[in-house]
Amino acid sequence: MAPGVDRMIMLLRGEESIREVIAFPMSANAQDLMMNAPAEITEEQLREVHIKIR
């Protein structure tokens, strides 16, 4: 059971959305706008981690 500190802070601050108190919130589409994730993977990135797609 998690303590829910972020939810407690949300309530104490009177915020309507928990995204206002989370350090790295994601958008409604589950995208991280600061890291541009998820994103397309390049062939170079796949080679770097030794992954082959068939």
What pattern of helices and strands is seen along the backbone? HH
Number of helices: 2
Low-confidence parts = none
Tell me the strand percentage band.
Answer: under 5%
Task: Write a structural description.
- This protein is an all-alpha fold.
- The protein has one domain.
- 28% of the residues lie in helices and 0% in strands.
- It has two helices and no strands.
- It has helices at 5-13, 43-48.
- The chain starts with a helix and ends in a 6-residue tail after the last helix.
Descriptive tags:
mainly alpha; 28% helix; 54 residues
Record the SSE blueprint.
Layout: H1 5-13, H2 43-48
Brief synopsis:
The chain is mainly α and 54 residues long. The chain has helices spanning 5-13, 43-48.
